[in-house]
Each structure stands twice: as C-alpha cells, then as structure tokens.
Amino acid sequence: MTPHEQVIDLHTHSSMSDGTQTPTELVAAAVAAGIDVLAITDHDTVGGWAEAERAARAAGLTLVKGVEISCHYDYSSVHLLGYLIDPADSALATELGRARESRATRLERMVERMTSDGIPISYEQVLAQVRPGATPGRPHIADALIEAGVIQHRDEAFADWLSERSPYYVGHYAVDLARAVRIVRAAGGVPVIAHPFTRTRCAGIPDSFIEQLAAAGLGGLEAYHRDHGPAEVARAERLAAEYDLLLTGSSDYHGDGKRNRLAENTTRREVLDAIIEQSSGATPVVRP
Ligand code: AMP
Ligand code: FE
Ligand code: FE
Ligand code: ZN
C-alpha cells in the first residue's frame, strides 16, 4: 500500500487581505479540497492567524503561519512570502504597518482619479468591501464595482482600470526586497519569493540579483504557480540548483476573487520539512 501523499499548499489569502473568505471559511475550503497542510499568507498582515489557528485545530488541519510582504525591486513590485516569522519582531511589524497605511491612502487616491473621470464609485463603497483590520488592496475597488453592478468579476477591473499601466494607478510604500529578506530571517522566518517570474511584471529580477538575495538569506523560490509557464519553472529550477534554494508550489488562492483553485500547485513534504527546520521555532507549525 502506498502511503498517502500529503497535500501541501503554502500560499493562500483570507479576507484579512484580498481573499473573499474568512480565515475560518478558508480552512474549511482547504479541508474540503483534501489539503493536509495549509499556509495562510495574507498581504502585509498576520491578522488572520489567530482565527485560522482556531479553525485549523477544530478541523484537524496542519497550519503554517505566514505573510506575503509587498516589496520592491527597482521600480517593480515583488511579493516575498515569510513563513513562520515571529510577529512580535519590531522591524518586521514596522514594515508591515507602513505598507498597510500607505495602501489605504493610495486606494483613496485611485478612487479620486476614477471618480473624476466619471466612473461611478466612491471611497465609502470601497471601504465597505474591506473587513475591519484587513489590508486594503486594488481588489477591494473591484469588489465595490461588482457590488455596484458595473462589472461581474475582479478580472474585468484588472484588465484596464486597475492595472499598473492604468492612468488611475497609484503605487504604495513597499520595502526593498533584499532588506525584506534580511528582516524575515532576523524575525526567525523563512523568506521565499512568491511567483518570482510572473510574466505581467514590468521588469524581471535578473539571475545575478537572485544570487545576491541567496547570499542575503533567501530560502526559496515559489516555482510552481499558475503565473509561471514551463520557461519560468525551468529557470527557477536552475537557480535553485545553483544557489541552493528550496522550490515551493502553491495555489495563491483568493476565494472567488481569483480563478486560482486550492491545491492546484503543491509543495513537497521534504521542502516543507526544510522550511520548518530553517525557522527559529518562535512561531511553530500548528498541528492538529
Ligand atoms: P494590490 O495589492 O493593491 O497591489 O493589488 C494586487 C492584488 O490584486 C494581487 O495580490 C492579486 O491578488 C490581485 N489581482 C491581480 N490581478 C488580478 C486579477 N486579474 N483578478 C483578480 N485579482 C487580481
Ligand atoms: Fe492578492
Ligand atoms: Fe502575490
Ligand atoms: Zn498571494
């Protein structure tokens, strides 16, 4: 009899950022999808951890606590996953707080630009889409447009109005990528670049910079992700072999907010074990 291969999904969002399900609903959806180990990785917040932990314990699911940190490399936005970080670390907490504050004022400015161009939307309508304490993002503008009946799915808003090339686009504060790698390590966590070679990005991260990040403490690359085609996966595999990095795979599930389905990409057990091994233990994995 072959032993049951564990299903491990290390990148998902709840309504503490731009996912559409509460942490409790996310855990239930993960169980229903046959997942054994789930990571909750909301944008710039650990605010969903406590609720996810309660739900995971009740459901018998193993939970890896994480975060997806908004970073910048040059002028492009890069997301860094930080697994099993100590949330009390002050440098980390400061950076997450700065990103969240900047995200709120930036959304208001985007909405101002949209309304002055005649798009029927108000900042109040957008705020109504953000759960108290959650990290606000462009998807919440899309949700307000859906609620108002202007569009049917977030995709439609991201195709033009909300894209980085849109005249309505306003950026927000994001920490330097190399600094974020060091901060995650100093906070006892394991830094993994989320979808590093996403094709929609303006400028990519060059191989030489991945080498520098590895020297700074980068733990891995999220190779297996729907934003990567065969060329991007091959590149991640080559870089991982060269610089001794882990390779993860994840869904980047956002509930109904994105087409990504839970466990559509997964991480190998040995890779999860290495992540746990590398972490300081300040934030242990929640085991049922
Ligand atoms: P922001 O965090 O405000 O920069 O918005 C970026 C977020 O929008 C990403 O984390 C994605 O989850 C989401 N997003 C990007 N493109 C799309 C899309 N086409 N459909 C739905 N959500 C998207
Ligand atoms: Fe997101
Ligand atoms: Fe991301
Ligand atoms: Zn994500």
List key phrases describing it.
globular, 288 residues, 10 helices, binds zinc ion, binds adenosine monophosphate, single chain, eight-stranded mixed sheet, alpha/beta
Task: Explain what this protein looks like in three dimensions.
- This protein has 288 residues and is α/β, with parallel strands linked by helices.
- It contains 10 helices and 8 strands.
- It has helices at residues 23-32, 49-59, 90-116, 123-127, 138-147, 154-159, 177-186, 207-216, 230-243, 269-278; strands at residues 8-9, 37-43, 62-73, 76-83, 175-176, 190-193, 220-224, 246-249.
- Strands 1, 2, 3, 4, 5, 6, 7 and 8 form an 8-stranded mixed sheet that branches.
- Helix 1 runs parallel beside helix 2 (49-59).
- The longest helix is centred in the middle third of the chain and has 27 residues, at 90-116.
- The two termini are 25 Å apart.
- The protein binds adenosine monophosphate (AMP), fe (iii) ion (FE) (2 copies) and zinc ion.
- Adenosine monophosphate (AMP) binds at residues 18, 43, 137-139, 154-155, 158, 254, 257-258.
